Amino acid sequence: MSEQLSGAEIILKALVDQGVDVIFGYPGGAVLPLYDALFKQNRIRHVLCRHEQGAVHMAEGYARSTGKVGVVLVTSGPGATNAVTGLTDALMDSVPVVCLTGQVPTFLIGNDAFQEADTTGITRQCTKHNYLVKDSDKLARTIHEAFLVAATGRPGPVVVDLPKDILMGKAPYIPASRVKHRSYKPQVKADIKAIEQAVELMGKAQRPVFYIGGGVVNSGPNACKLLTSFVRSTGFPITSTLMGLGAYPASDQQFLGMLGMHGTYEANMTMHDCDLMICIGARFDDRVTGRLDAFAPGSKKIHVDIDPSSINKNVAVDVPIVGDVAHVIEDMIRVWKAKQVRPAQKAIAAWWSTIDGWKARNCLAYKATDSTIKPQQAIQRLYALAKDRDTYITTEVGQHQMWAAQFYKFEEPNRWMTSGGLGTMGYGLPAALGVQVAHPDSLVVDISGEASFMMNMQEMGTAAQYRLPIKVMILNNQYMGMVRQWQELLHGSRYSESYSDALPDFVKLADSFGWLGLTVDSPADLDSAIQTMIDSDKPVLLDVHVDPSENCYPMIPSGAAHNHMLMGPEDGAGAGVSDHGMVLV
Amino acid sequence: MMTQQDIRTHTIAVLVDNEAGVLARVIGLFSGRGYNIESLTVAEVDTAEHLSRITLVTSGTPMVIEQIKAQLGRLVPVRMVADLTVEGPAVSRELALLKVVGTGEKRVESLRIADIFRANVVDSTNESFVFEIVGKTDKLDAFIKLMEPLGLAEISRTGVAAIARGKDPLL
Ligand SMILES: Cc1ncc(C[n+]2csc(CCOP(=O)(O)OP(=O)(O)O)c2C)c(N)n1
Ligand SMILES: [Mg+2]
């Protein structure tokens, strides 16, 4: 008979087998056996969050900056329910996370026992999959399966619910190599006929555009390299979603910037007028498409996605290609070369001159002054001062997030972590901690808003405890700026509850956690404040007082089409918003 | 734009690993994404393989039906999804038990109609019958309609079970 281990020991052994070096968590009664087993070993490091939502975002930051699975450990009941927002965030943004939750012992399940919650019931709709382990013999297999499901296909969060008696029961260990799944087999290699059809369309296209998303980043650095070289060989313009930034180098001439609600004028106009859209690893989200019946009306569409349910969900496409981006692009390049495709040079040149006309609108322009710092300016200066370092950027949610996406230039994948699908305020600070854990010597900056910051600021304690020198740069406009902007646009500038009242003294707050706190309010001092932040070997909170009335443009108001963008405040409040648009989020 | 006419009823067979929560996953998918369920049946069909078969009757535009199938296919314990409505001919059957209460002429009439529909009497008292009827959904609907004025008191229906015609199994 093989060696018997306790359930807790089996779990840790399985985690080591899966290459886990760190877990983010918070203890409690139901997981004490696991914490005891952690105490007795030194292969796996544990980072103590201050709220379980923070632990999940840390795991997300870790995962998105490394391409590995992020691991979370929380207790039963409130530990598990606190993790729900993080899990939903990871589901919406396809982030591989395995979350181990404690549970009351099997014989108490269903009795409303102390700290019992129906965790698998609650998390069923916000995970890619979840398990309740009712037998210590199944522990090792379940943990290995959880990693397989989280990391492969379209990645996502997986919960493994662990009753306390299962953690204490004894069973033999099963190595990962012996675990195969009966029904879960994501398709990575695509149908070559569809790829040939796609390449043929590309050869004939007059006004093509690549529209890429987070799926390219998820497919890995090799997918990004292949994509970049393929796009360059076509000479076609390329735009990216919020989630795809960095998959293609932002400084490249063919790159039009981000598309969508706060995307660039040139990206959105190119999408609207294209005759061929090559969508790779993006999902036609409503932030991207705007009004659906006016979305790229004259175009044929190719859609590459590993998740068949993303295809034809919002927008009907002509050539669906189900597969992993890296595999698909590899095949595309091969077919492109074999068929010696020559793009329609003259038409493409004319297309570029149209696009250059749109670019000349200079849609991201803003008016800098000597008296107040513009939020856009703060991000541009951060970029200028940090770009030659090994830098990772996270954000919270709001105007500052959109300005970060517009003004920070990402040359590589996995450098940009933001909550796209769920739009979770409070994501950026813990995500930055997860990134810093994975990359201890890199510069990690959370571009933050004063309101978002306060949603998970308890994690300042985690930064201090583990000496994680993250930088939080608050663009403090004393408003929930994005809410205020919508109230201006849609609700007659009645700023109902969107003012950030009773803010703390951020410098003192920083100080009290052993961070360095800095404030800046004049444009003349901006560079030196940012430089001090970057140069510090401590965690830093930089409170940048920015123009409180600045709004984020360009903007496609909800319910409008790509070619009906508001370019600036002069385009007027309420302009272009239909009754239908009013009900959209 | 899609019109009402594009909405069609489809019978979908789903083979799943018979594990805890699998039915909740399927139902949660339908309610969470706002799809219709007209009928749903489930039972284990292979004990050794722990395989269950879910038969779903749903309706939607072609795009929605494709979405439903793709979303079902995405669930981790789902082994196979087959659209019996479009993938060749299929037979579908449903069973219903009807309690009909009455005496005299109505009672006789209910028996006569049951005979025409080949329904069986599976329980009887002096003033009631329980009929068992098997057939397509529309046959059951017709039978129930005729029983309504004759003292129909209670109905229990199984929902649809369906299988493709011909020699080839799904899996
Ligand atoms: C958890 C959560 N609650 C509410 C919202 C709605 N919301 C979106 S942006 C925003 C304001 C964010 O304010 P701040 O962090 O100061 O950023 P700013 O827009 O001012 O740059 C709010 C409340 C959200 N996205 N997330
Ligand atoms: Mg703000």
From TrEMBL, chain A:
Stored SUPFAM superfamilies: DHS-like NAD/FAD-binding domain, Thiamin diphosphate-binding fold (THDP-binding)
- Please name the InterPro entries in this protein's record: Acetolactate_synth_lsu, AHAS_TPP, DHS-like_NAD/FAD-binding_dom, THDP-binding, Thiamin_PyroP_enz_cen_dom, Thiamin_PyroP_enz_TPP-bd_dom, TPP_enz, TPP_enzyme_TPP-bd
The residue range of the signal peptide is none
**Cofactor stoichiometry and binding?**
Binds 1 thiamine pyrophosphate per subunit.
Keyword Iron among record annotations = no
Tell me which Gene Ontology terms the entry assigns under biological process.
isoleucine biosynthetic process; L-valine biosynthetic process
User: What is this protein's name?
Assistant: Acetolactate synthase
**What organism is listed for this UniProt entry?**
Roseospira navarrensis
